[in-house]
Batch of 3 targets.
Target 1
Amino acid sequence: MFKIVRRQEMTGGTVILNEIEAPLIAKKARPGQFVILKANENGERIPLTMADTDPEKGTITIIYMVVGKSTALFRDLQVGDSYQDVIGPLGKATHLEKVGKVICVGGGTGVAVLHPITRGLKEVGNDVTCIIGARNKDLLILEDEMKKASHDLRVCTDDGSYGHHGFVTQVMQEILDAGGVKLVVAIGPVPMMKAVSKITKDYNVPTMVSLNPIMVDGTGMCGGCRVTIGGETKFACVDGPEFDGHQVDYDELIKRLQAYQEEERECHRQYCTIRDAK
Amino acid sequence: MADIAEKARKNPRVPMPEQEPKVRARNFLEVPTGYTMKMAQEEASRCLQCKKPGCVNGCPVGVDIPGFIDFIVQGDMSGAIRHLWKMNALPAVCGRVCPQEIQCEGQCIVGKKGQPVAIGNLERFCADYEREHGTGELPPKQPATGKRVAVVGSGPSGLTVAGDLIVKGHDVTIFEAFHKPGGVLVYGIPEFRLPKAIVAQEVNFLARLGVKVECNAVVGRTVSLDELFTEGYEAIYVGVGAGLPKFMNLPGENLVGILSANEYLTRANLMKAYQYPDVDTPIPHGKNVVVLGAGNVAMDSARTAMRLGAETVKIVYRRSRDEMPARKAEIHHAEEEGIEMCLLTNPTRYLGNEKGRLTGMECLRMELGEPDASGRRRPIPIKGSEYLVDCDLCIVAVGSGANPLLTSETSDMQLNKWGYIVTDTATGKTTKKGVWAGGDIVTGAATVILAMGAGRQAANSIHNYLTLGW
Ligand SMILES: Cc1cc2nc3c(=O)[nH]c(=O)nc-3n(C[C@H](O)[C@H](O)[C@H](O)COP(=O)(O)OP(=O)(O)OC[C@H]3O[C@@H](n4cnc5c(N)ncnc54)[C@H](O)[C@@H]3O)c2cc1C
Ligand SMILES: Cc1cc2nc3c(=O)[nH]c(=O)nc-3n(C[C@H](O)[C@H](O)[C@H](O)COP(=O)(O)OP(=O)(O)OC[C@H]3O[C@@H](n4cnc5c(N)ncnc54)[C@H](O)[C@@H]3O)c2cc1C
Ligand code: SF4
Ligand code: SF4
Ligand code: FES
């Protein structure tokens, strides 16, 4: 069992942070890697990136958006409750290298995934500008943490309720125009990563994205997480989750993410009805 | 011989009671319901107690078949199961899933003139009887040696190693990547063929003997082989199976609705997705389902699809019936349940709609040509024979390969060109000191009993190493 030692609600309860006891994983994990969690006996195996780890304390931190039944179930776990299963660390770690000027772009809960990578890129000596975005001020997460993890933080909101009024891509483009950018890291909703990659391709700036296809085992055994990279099929759980943003078939990924949409909506609805009745 | 022929004819094999095909094709309960004591004794009495039994030669682990059958005839069920356990730690499993027709039963003398003795059914009966009526008494254990052994993977081969070494007094821990132990027995082979309660009981038996089981431990990620040595394990057995799904690399393969058999069966069996939404893992429900391949994995996928409510299920296979690798009983059961066999047929591409979902596939008819390297007649396409098959779900069951997750993190262990671990055939030793391997990760996808046989061999060698040296 994997006990929750800290729980925090963000953005009014739609995004949740859990710090979980998982000493073996905490010792091994590198930025960019993920875990698979299962709440209870009948639970689904859900992949989430580690937003932070504390090897001394033996804990890992996950930050997730509540989108369906399984994440709703996770939200209901309190401090002292446990996840039945946590498996990891999975996936390849981010290749952290000093290249010079770097832009890290994060959207939605992608910011949580971006956090350890940003910090790692800064630690190895890069000049890191970070751009984070959300639909509005209330949905913004980890602003202070991202400020600390980078040299310069820019914030965007779609509705202008905070920071720059507009998309992260606009701010990114201004920085790219100034020149000298050696690497862009973009993590967030698939359409955002697609848009970022399209722009950086014009500027010829290498771009790394982190993909989130539906997974089951996370060990390369089922092939459910197939993504097309440069015309070739890859398994995101073992070959990724990070890939060259210019090579990704985003449209295919968007369609594959909707594979179980109808079933999931029904399952989540039932869960909410039962819970609300209690 | 005339005598045997006469006996075989007069005395046909006792059929195994089964659920009606129409009923079982829509439920997940076990298909054969098992012999009664009376049936078992009647079937056991068909055995001629041969002095030089062919059946034993046919069994990869050399189970003393006339020996355990004689206990049944005598009505000594406790004796029967204890006799079986000497060579086979998982008779409840083997009795159900061994390809008996090419192993023990294939060599039974009675089978030369009629139907062979139902060795598998009897083996299963003994194990089921022990489970239901037995004392649950544990076998005696040797005094503790204080030596620690790590077993990586909890499939049949890992379970065998663990069982053998714990009774020899060693301290054994199994590390399993999934959240539940059992390997293919829990994630691959469906409930209707091998009830999961049986596997759980076998694992529980080992736990009662003192074997520790660490689930959620992905060796190569959570912990490496070298770290296990540092932690004080003196020997390691690697039995991680052949868990890498093969696809056919056809155009359109990433459409929604095309799954590897590994994914489909894992959702259905390990995650119990057939109980969705009472459990949280969904599984696609196809109306018209195509399964590619004709081995046990393909039959299991097709029959699962039928049970999930499909209107039509087709097995598409490029060779002919004679080459189908599945157990005969599975092919027979599948056909009874309404699964169509589209033989000498090969898919060429998948078709999808604007939502990226599978709507059909194009197939090509084949004919048999000259024998190929495997001795089987090579299927060759018939020009211009393309036709379309409507389908909204396709399960790809065309084989599996070596998963590199652990081996790629272990640089000093030699692999062959397909990525399987190279071992010494007599002992199971790998080229890395203190590490043994066996089962599908050495042989490629094979059978439960071969994986167990490899486990037993390695366990003996590990015991020698721990007591005598490398
Ligand atoms: C490697 C990896 C790392 C991830 N890291 C994080 C993270 O740090 N924080 C976080 O909030 N989320 C992360 N995700 C996404 C997270 O796994 C999904 O949001 C979660 O599986 C949804 O489960 P659910 O049952 O609550 O929702 P479901 O009911 O399964 O789905 C609800 C909706 O979300 C979509 N969806 C389903 N699965 C995924 C998926 N894998 N990715 C995106 N959308 C999905 C569905 O299309 C559906 O519309 C990650 C995914 C992967 C593969
Ligand atoms: C659907 C299906 C049906 C089959 N039907 C039959 C049949 O009817 N008769 C028959 O004889 N054979 C059948 N087989 C084949 C048989 O199941 C296998 O040959 C046998 O299970 C191999 O045993 P194993 O112990 O080598 O590996 P597996 O049973 O594959 O077990 C390996 C275990 O290791 C774990 N593992 C993998 N990597 C790691 C890691 N890095 N760290 C920790 N754990 C790890 C896996 O999760 C798994 O639990 C079937 C196979 C399948 C898939
Ligand atoms: S282990 Fe398998 S092959 Fe051997 S006797 Fe039993 S059923 Fe037959
Ligand atoms: S070959 Fe057949 S008849 Fe002879 S001992 Fe074996 S099972 Fe009995
Ligand atoms: S999640 Fe199964 S192969 Fe990646």
Target 2
Amino acid sequence: MTRAELGAEVAGTAAELHRLGLRPGDVVGVTIGDDCHHLIVSLALMRLGCPHLVLPTYEPVPYREELARRVGAVAVIAQSADAGFDGIPSVLAPELPAAGAAAQSALPPLPGNDVVCTYIASSGSTGLPKLVPLTHSQLFLQSVAFHGAGQAETYFRPASIEFNNSKRQRLYVLATGGANVFADANREQAIETCRRHAVTLFAPGHARAQAMAEREGGLTAPLPAETELRLDGAPVSRQLRQGIIAKLTARLNVTYGATEAGSIASAGPDMHEIDPDIVGLARPGIELAVVDYDGRPVPDGATGDVRLRGDAVVTDYANDREASARAFRNGWFYPGDRGRLLDGRYLCVEGRADGMMNLATINVYPAEIERVVRALPGVVECAAFSVSLPGFGDVPLVAVVARPPATEQGILGEARAHLGLRAPRKVFLVDSLPRNAVGKVARAELADFVKPAQR
Amino acid sequence: MSPQSGHNLTQIVAEAIVQCGLVLEGVDDPSDTEAVMARSFLELGFDSLNLMEFCIAISLETGIDLDVGKLETLRTPAAVVEFLAKRT
């Protein structure tokens, strides 16, 4: 699809949604699993000036309903007529091609740059997802930081557009004049897809990258010379970096980012041996610092809290003053990561300050699991924790002190229904939770519940 | 966990498939373990998310690392049972 064809589809879809009653400023949920259809509807809403929020089809309906209510959605655009959201009208997504509809309805003026174009749900440390409001100008500035000015990439990420990073980065690509490749592919097909479509930026995700780099019984075909492999969203071990460089490409770029800021730093091919935790240099427009508890910069090489600022960085969360006050302080954004600066410029990220888990690039906070499990009948108390599995990251688990009628399977099922992919994968029914001298749950000891065979 | 017999491993793999929560394709009776084991993950309707869940369930239950890339080689649940048997 050319940009002109895409523009016509977006205009047609916008006209149809306008005809159906959507107006600038209306907040809209989007629950469409098909990548291309989802993207076109999202762009149409952005054209109309309707901020939208992804309500992933892979998440349970109650979770999507809660998100839609929290953001104040007046409607939900769905791909099927039977998508029911309690109390929120559903709008059937206009069928494609919708190009012809553009001529039939006058569109409102283009929205201003400072208008919110999308809300992005990011897992919340308090147990509720944080809603990150992104304006048109912030989206564009994040796009430039992601690609570099003047870069028009051909981008391939074999993951659903309903995932946060996947959605944002596809919008970045369009904002900077690039092209998106949509294809589901195993590792060999992925390499062939890169070759066939002259992909310049391939973002396979950690699990796929690891599978490609660790192939047994022979060498994986290398990526085409023009293809850069980019990994983001979770720490990348030195072993994985070396495996990718040895078997796939020397053009490996490890990127550190946040929903609130887009790309924050990136480490190119010449940086991977500097430090095992290196995520590289600040991206254009981002000012980075590592500070102590009082906000004073720590000495070079010392560990502290990472903070950053820049025009692409959002300044608060929607409808969450408590989380906003914690993350946005004195003009800086604190992503909640611990790190070091080397030579005053190379950022190394050591991990989270708040126990956040990272399951296949999906952020999961213990608090959101505990909030759901604690509310179940028979549950006395609980504590979420994780084990690390190669290729997947932190797998969430939960230890529960419970009485009848609570059961392991019942808790698993309810957690799955409310949390979807962020649900614990195993429940440990225990007599009591380990506590430290002041009575707080000793989280480091929770892993002892996992039998050696279970790690 | 003590070394597992072939029967136990078959049970673990079958339960891991159930935990993925998908409606199995290509089999008349999803409780027919033998039929399910012989089909490829692709034929059973697994997508990338289901495969991830399957690997996590197996790894948690057995302590043996299994990644999605490995499943591309093993292809069927029966082959996973054989793979696990060699490592217990």
Target 3
Amino acid sequence: MEDNKPQLVKVTVDGIEVEVEPGTTILQAARKIGPEVAPPAMCYYQPLKGSGGKCRACLVKVAAGSAKDPRPMPKLVASCITPVQDGMVVENTTSPQVLEARKGVVEFLLINHPLDCPVCDQAGECDLQNFAFEHGAAKTRYEEERRTFDKHDLGPYIQLHMTRCILCYRCVFTADQITNKRVHGVMNRGDHAEISTYIEKAIDNDFSGNVIDVCPVGALTDKTYRFKNRVWFSRPVDAHRDCPTCSGKVTLWYRGEEVIRVTARKNEWNEVNEFICNTCRFETKKTSDWVIEGPTKIARSSVITANKYRADTIKPDFVSRLAAANYKPIDDTRDTSQLSIQQLPPERFASSN
Amino acid sequence: MGKKILLEHIDVPGIDTYDVYRKQGGYTAVEKALKTMTPDSVVEEVKKAGVRGRGGAGFPMGMKWSFLAKPEGVPRYLVCNADESEPGTFKDHYLMKHIPHLLIEGMIVSSFALGANKSFIYVRGELMYVIRILEKAIAEAKAAGFLGKNIMGSGYDLELVVQPGGGAYICGEETALLESLEGKRGNPRNKPPFPAVKGLYQSPTVVNNVESISTTPWIINNGGDAYAAIGIGRSTGTKLISASGHINKPGVYEIELGVSVEDFIYADEWCGGIRPGHKLKAVVAGGSSVPILPANLILNLANGDKRLMSYESLSDGGFATGTMLGSGGFIVMDETACVVRNTWNFSRFYHHESCGQCSPCREGTGWMEKVLHRIEHGHGSLHDIDLLVDVAKKIEGNTICPLGDAAAWPVGSAIRHFRDEFEWHINHPVEATQPGAVYRGEMALV
């Protein structure tokens, strides 16, 4: 089988060898090996052409450039945009220099981040949370005031929290590549740069909601879902519908009996498989509108979802049983019935195992 | 007197007009190149001359030209980087203002060598009057038949466009410049691909500094070997140095590379010494982004030899005891200059000019500026010094473009060589924040 694909190049990442097609980036080669050696990516987003290179989270050390020229590269390189060479030796987690640089990147990303995770809708599925949890220091050395921005209203669907933004440019690429007209972009320069529309405009486009899915942090969130729930209280379910504008393949997020949010389906790298339209995302929130396929398999790791949403190994009712077993009444007068996760009736799952 | 190549006719009255420039031997290089030489032989002469990029990086210009990809049916571009914004550097401004035709002649010869039919001069937006001077000079050159279609019957066409920038320092970085020239936000691009393969409008592009391009007429007229004979070692030719600071005669000087730093500062021909009654404390040798050096290290190498004005000698000893020639912005400070304040000022500049694209530079430059501001204003603590070193180290080398390095080097070097002064600022906040207060502790003044 190797004979008809003679073009494959060999790359070694953290001592593990992998064969990939020429032109593949180091990051993709490492992802092919597995999540243990894949560098984190805050700005790179595979479905978006031109993304990457900005956050510097994926910096790796190239200990040998190629078999022909085994000299190491002088600087750390951004693995998401650097193509592999045959015989390249890459050090990711095995290089103290890389880990040190990554620690620096986390610190830089966090110095002006508000750290308002307790009230942020993204908490629990936030790339920055995962990244900081894995590579960051527990304490900050930043004593200055964090930067703030004037508020901008982006219309009825999308909520912008500019203070949380890490300027990954993903939403800009999304608007460029899947919508016909981009009305938002990055304004200003340096640490005053901000995502904004020029002179207070609403983002009005059938696919604008996808900027919420691509945002790695809670800078762009769903207004129809705002402050309604914490991610870990809801249960993701794959569903589809016959949509005239998009593929209609989505993930529904249930809390109790209610669909509280609709998102596109994401792969194990937290990247959207197929972008969905605003009608599916914001306006179709009844179970009767959808054909349920089954519980979503969440393969990616996350600070809060880790070991919790393994739908392939864990039965759907596991979480609710777990919650019931560990349930301790809170000493207040809140209505706690909403906090426990109710099991969905089995007929909801078209292909439930 | 040192050899003058670029500023040979600077004192001739009316040199900014075509007639006077032509009388002084102007445009003979265009005639020679277009009539008697092939593009490849022009590239060969420039390669022989060994002229190194004058914009700061010092990359051999001939080599850069030979890297230019030449696919069929795709236009090639030459872009002149006249977005000179480095604090302390003002040589290109001077050159364009006084001898605009030299740059235009250089652009014609260089474009011919690279096979570019449309070339751009990207001038920083603040220099609107220089843009008008250049446009007038281009019109004159066009009227004289040195620009336009079929130049001097050679069949070679060239159109020269002057493009004002928006005044951003980052647009002096070559890929940000190309983005800006394309009408986009001036963000540096990820490399590879390099501009020599995919540059302006995704076509192969060479970006050269004003001074580099201005050397080509002389090289064509006199030969690459003659140029290589000037200078020292791999630092060939002459270099414009923008001298500023506490010296008797600030200004733009053309020096033969290899002049000793001591001569440059103290000889009457150039800076004319430190202002009366004061002593040399420190020098920033190549524009604000290169490491600052104290008096003893700028005059002498670590081994005691004299330091020379050349690419190699100035960077001798790495960053521990050396610096860089950079773009030739020679900032001299006497003992009344406060290094902490100066470092803060540089940091403020880089904080303001960071494009905000990649996180270490965007966040780190602001952080360093704030910490330095704190130290300068008497609110610092001793661990802030180590914090600055650490932040600078985490920016350096981890960014998309060299602006991150440029922001980190001045801070790192100032602390490396003037740590006492930082400590004094922190330990004596009341004295240090008095107007005009400067550290007068032990240090080598010359």
